[in-house]
Design goal:
Blueprint lengths: L6 E5 L7 H11 L6 E6 L4 H12 L2 E8 L2 E7 L8
Parallel strand pairs: 1-2
Antiparallel strand pairs: 2-4, 3-4
Length: 84
């Protein structure tokens, strides 16, 4: 039986575009497939940035909230593709 996927918190409040997406990308590269990354950000441009990023990379944006100006994104790292 394998362990449940992990969740990592990345606090990027105060950073402006494109830094939240760049730092999230770096974090996701080091995470195992299926792991979850919660990102906290305050840059309003992050909403569109993370939607586009997930569409382009295959990671899943599974949750988004805006609470008093703090944006919270939950991204699940995509499964690895098997080599052809």
């Amino acid at each position: 039986m394998s362990a449940p996927p992990t969740e990592t918190l990345l606090d990027l409040r105060g950073l402006a575009c494109p830094m939240p997406v760049l730092k999230a990308n770096r974090a996701l590269r080091d995470m195992p497939p299926g792991a979850k990354l919660r990102i906290l950000a305050t840059d309003r441009a992050s909403v569109a940035d993370f939607q586009s990023y997930c569409r382009e990379t295959g990671h899943a944006l599974i949750a988004f909230t805006d609470t008093a100006g703090v944006l919270s994104f939950m991204i699940r790292r995509r499964a690895e593709t098997s080599p052809s």
